[in-house]
Design brief:
mainly alpha, disordered N terminus
Length: 403
């Protein structure tokens, strides 16, 4: 009997303990749920408070920020990708007027094979330079500033600043040359020969328009570049199609003939011309490969975008250069190649598409040369590498002065 009573007592004690434990667990669960609820409410309240503070700061900054530091037309920065950012910029800057006006002259002097050698040599230099820069981008943190960021990461701020300023000065000169070339072409189109003021007025107007586009924002620049790329491809297709359909023997266009290609395969330099001089004329046409690096601050993934976009633009340009050299060498007589700088226009199917491409190249080259230096100069100013340039670190006026 005693054992049975003890067993009953132990059983009742066990039940009491289990019920107490379950009650404690329920209480603890209720407490945890209440704590999570309070924590969630507090987190939500904190987020709402942060949002209100941020909106108040934005409102205060928008009302108190001076006009020269205000961004117009774009409410927030837009990040670009491989094809709309890097590829179009590199392609527009690399495919220059030299290809339209001097490719036939190069084939007429150096011949087809040496012309192909010149193209391969220049593109090899560009590819090695791009790969070296990509190595710097991979191992070093490259911010906005393009060329300056690359140089300062390896050589330091002072040397990087000095070289970058020379680079910007060269880009400014190239932009001026493109604007003047466009002005001269418009002067000839209007039959106002030797009127210097027309050239200056057109060039100045073009620069003002390009400055306005750059101040408006990077998306406007990319939009214009996409239009330029479409026109460029149309002019290239017009030239390729016309090479199969158009012949004009009095002007030196005989169509595809094997004997013509053989006659133009070797060099036959004009007086005063050498392989080095021909190489020097063609080499500037591939100097725009760093346009993608200058947009590093406007890219979603700079390392991937710059590598893929730059190398793709170089590959496409190389293919177009080779196609132009072979077509001109196989369809035109050497004498006309050496003396007629507009012989490619005579080969084109519609001609007006080629002319549009020619004018578009002048505009796009000027736009490409003017869009890169402001990023470099503002990066130098923001890095305080040159105290004289510190006021140009941000703002619309800083952008205009940099331009």
């Amino acid at each position: 009997m005693t054992d049975a009573k003890n067993a009953d007592v132990m059983t009742s004690l066990g039940r009491h303990r289990r019920s107490k434990d379950n009650a404690d667990d329920d209480d603890e669960g209720d407490f945890r749920s209440k704590a999570d609820f309070v924590r969630g409410r507090s987190t939500e309240a904190a987020q709402n408070e942060k949002t209100e503070i941020y909106e108040a700061e934005q409102l205060f900054s928008s009302t108190s920020k001076p006009w020269w530091k205000t961004s117009y037309l774009l409410a927030q920065p837009i990040l670009l990708g491989t094809w709309d950012g890097v590829f179009t910029s590199c392609l527009i800057n690399m495919f220059g007027v030299v290809v339209f006006l001097r490719m036939g002259w190069m084939v007429g002097n150096a011949g087809v094979w040496y012309s192909l050698l010149i193209i391969v040599m220049t593109e090899t230099i560009v590819v090695v330079t791009i790969l070296s820069s990509l190595g710097i981008c991979h191992w070093c943190h490259v911010d906005s500033g393009g060329v300056y960021s690359l140089l300062s990461s390896v050589l330091g701020n002072r040397i990087g600043t000095a070289i970058s300023l020379v680079y910007c000065f060269g880009q400014a000169i190239a932009c001026s040359l493109c604007a003047v070339a466009f002005g001269e072409s418009i002067m000839d189109l209007l039959n106002m020969h030797d009127n210097v003021w027309v050239t200056r007025a057109v060039a100045a107007g073009l620069l003002i328009i390009l400055i306005g586009i750059n101040v408006a924002g990077v998306w406007w620049i990319v939009g214009f570049q996409l239009v330029f790329v479409v026109l460029l491809f149309c002019s290239v297709l017009d030239f390729i199609i016309g090479s199969f359909a158009r012949t004009d023997p009095p002007k030196g266009i005989v169509g595809y003939e094997w004997q013509t290609f053989v006659n133009n395969s070797g060099p036959s330099y004009q007086e005063g011309e050498t392989f080095s001089s021909v190489l020097g004329v063609f080499f500037p046409s591939v100097c725009g490969a760093f346009a993608g690096f200058n947009m590093s601050g406007d890219l979603k993934d700079p390392k991937t975008n710059i590598s893929v976009g730059s190398l793709a633009a170089v590959a496409l340009c190389t293919g177009i250069y080779i196609a132009f050299a072979v077509i001109l060498g196989a369809t035109c007589l050497r004498t006309n190649l050496q003396t007629d700088f507009m012989i490619a226009e005579k080969i084109s199917a519609t001609r007006f598409l080629w002319i549009i491409g020619f004018y578009e190249i002048s505009l796009s080259a000027a736009a490409g040369n003017i869009s890169g230096p402001p990023h470099v100069i503002q990066a130098i100013a923001a890095d305080q590498a040159c105290r004289t340039l510190e006021p140009l670190a941000e703002g619309v006026v800083a952008m205009i002065v940099s331009l």
